[in-house]
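Intended use. Records like the one below are meant for learning the mapping from a protein sequence to its folded structure. Do not use them to infer anything beyond what is encoded.
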Amino acid sequence: MTENAIPQQPGGSWAGPPAGRPPVHPSLSEAGRFLCAGTYLDAGYRDRVIDELYVHEERIVAPSYGYDASRVLAHALRARRAELGWAAGVLGAWFVGSLLTGGALAVFVLPFLLLSLADWLRARNVPALRVLSVILRIYVWWALALVLLAFGFGGFALLSLLDGSGFMPFAPEEAGLAGGAVWWLPVVFAGVVTVVGLQRGHVFRTIATDLAERRYADHANDQAEATEGARFQRVRQRIRAEQHAPMIMYDVNDPFCGAGDPFRPWQLSVELRPREDLGPDRKPVPVTNAHILARIVPLLERLRVPSPHGSPEQAAAVGDRLRELVLDECVFLPAGGLPHRDTAQVVHGQFGEQRAAAIEEGGERRRHFLRVRVGGWDENLVVTVFVRVHTQGGMMMLEVAPHVLLPVRTDFHNADADAQRYRNNSALGKAVWALRNTPGSLAASATTLGRGLASWWRIVTGGHGGARPEGPRVSVRELASEDNGSLFHLMDLDRFLKTIQDRVVGGIVLALHEAGWHTEEFAQRAVNVAEGGVFIQSVNHSAFSIGGSNNTNSTKGKGSTGGN
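Structure written out for the chain above:
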């Protein structure tokens, strides 16, 4: 260990004082449980998870702050396998029903596809398309009403007349309805509705049982991980080796992928000037980056200690998330250039040497940061502050890059309540839900099978297993984040951030003062910058945004780098 090295645990973490409290293990966090539930509720999210973590096995996983990406992937694969089975069942029910009814059930195929198209048009959120969706929906339901009326009263001649006039292009010919098999239609249609209802019940039963808080806490018995094949076991081993490593292998276009959105990142440079009160016989001591960080760490560690509360028991009961503050050092390295993804694990074992070289060099591609993380709201609000100090040519540069992961999507968060509501609903309520969603089941099932086939095709033909390693393109946690937080969330975000930044500035002032350098200019400018006087914004649309004091700037900006 060098002279000014910071005392660490293996892996680059600092042990907190006894008054501190370790955060929940990432594999057991509430945020991770919500992400797993989301893979059963949102097919689009599930496909993104599988594509990033399973199909593109050459991509190193993004850092997983407050969750375990391998568990999310396991449940995504399990959810897709179940949905593929149910999709095949729905399509099979339509096929068998068409045979039993002599093709009469096919009357509903085109109108149901048109209703699915109407839903798609409405979701585009374009006024003209929404109007078209309403018109299409009115037409389809009107036509379906006539079909049901004809079936009910044997009005086959009416259907033929409407069909011939062009008002009902999907009405069957009279001959197709004349057979006695058409009277199977109500029974067969009820069977299709039942399959749709059973599929929904299976989803909510999984959420209410396998993803219940108590069952999720038993990680060793998670059936989702135990039932996957050799490919998943290989990918899971890599994810677990990479997602919490202090060596971050990044994509140069998004180095902080996984940490969330940049929130008012800032930097400043100050001239190192000797203090006048040192006296003629004393000169300022040169300061290194490691020496400055060593003065910051104790001040940050003290944030874990609650204020006096009258008794040790009362102090231990304090629920402030700053007690769970995590401190470590990390080194960023570009992922490009490695011969194989597994080589990254060899690089992870070189963290000590990489850190020793990076902490003083101030390089471009390899960068050393002090990483400070607080996970609030059961890891649903994660604030991570990356701090980098560099001295060069008589100047000191400070870079502070705060990032925030906002809470997991509301529909994922409400999965428990929705599952309980559905499972405790009456038989009539469940039947009405299934009947309402049956028209869209045909297109949804076909889409599900198509997505599964496309994913398999990308695995077979993409050549990802032997491709050169890449940094992460997306984070499965960022994909599931809300666009904003509640006032409570934003107040906690502001408190965590200001507290950490004040301690960082205080530690640097202390280090400079002890070494005999001026501190007034740095302290004044740091307070001004940290409060929003000058900060680096996203570089997506402009080089930099400097000036102003807007403390309500959006935390969203997918793909932004938060730096220069």
